Protein 1
Amino acid sequence: MKTKTLSLKDLVKTYNEYLKNRGYDRTVDSSTDKTIGITATKSKESTVIEGKIIDAEAGITQYTITWSAV
């Protein structure tokens, strides 16, 4: 069974859609072709999603998601 690998662009799109569906109305997407940079807030919650391509040939992407409530 072959697993489909998402491109970084697809991953960014997926996270933006997810945040919108969760009600995050203030989103800043500073992602590039090689990095993920999304910050979103709603009410008393915020999230930061950061990441980058570690090894393009091997398809390795590392990213961190930080959820916080104020």
Protein 2
Amino acid sequence: MKKLFAVLAAAAFMGASVSAIAAGEKKAAEKKPSAEECKKNPKLKGCEKK
């Protein structure tokens, strides 16, 4: 029974870790480009002038 609980706890921890990593990568992908990147390619997402 202790082994079953240990396996279930490990699986829950792994699932939480994977989802946290995926969320972090998504947030990093949505980062705004720098001013220099916008000068090179003004059509990049996030470079629109207001």
Protein 3
Amino acid sequence: MKKTVYYRNVLFLFLFMLPLLATTCEQENDEFFQMDQSGKPILKAITTISDSVFNDQIVGKGWHCTKTQLFNEMGRLDEFRWTADGSGPIDLYFSKDSLWQFIYEKDRNLLVADKYVYNPRENLVESSIANYMQIISISNWQLRTIERLGDFSVYVLNYYEPMSDYELNAHWLGFKPEEE
């Protein structure tokens, strides 16, 4: 008898909490991002990442893109699939002065690089190959960025995980520079 009452109470709590959890998860975007007039997502509160943290935790590491979400016109995040045209996510490597992009294309793996400047006031990586890249957060296991895709006003939230030395070496060997 006691087990039946216990399970009924657990089921009641679960059914009560489920809608609450669903609305909380749905509203998460509203808490952190707002869209400006051009459709660019803006962090409502930014935690700056200093030059020293950037250099210690990001520079000298390869970063593999594991998930991409698209900001829709309402400022909400939708899942994004890279494979529609045969392209894939872009992996990154930051040296002290250059940003390297490992680009998955339909017929080849392309390696491009250019100088960058890091702006710690806004967590921006400024480079000709990164149309817009703002670092949202960094930890030992994840880098999150807002990036603009191509020349379009399409913004995504990218999740990166650090590459192992083996993975990074495989990237250096498997991706070829763009021929001019």
Protein 4
Amino acid sequence: MEILQKLEKLIITIGNNDKIKVDKNNIEEVQSGVNFFSERMLARAEERMKIIIPKEDYKFDVIRSLTLDWSSTTNEPDEEYLWGGFQLLSLIESLGGYK
């Protein structure tokens, strides 16, 4: 199973939990942009930073900018509040925001 499908399954599982409120989820936006990848920008970043990113790692760019923010309360007398989430970077952003 590809990484995007695994993350989508995780987000669906979290979203289906009635004790968790999803505050932000952009999986659909990420999926719609899954076919865009700028090898030209990556090549420029590699040249400038003097590194080489293996082509097999390009597949991880499909999860660029994936965001999930969630929160949960226990609704018990000794109320507890939990929150979590993540925002993933693209390959270019992971290289330090190459411009």
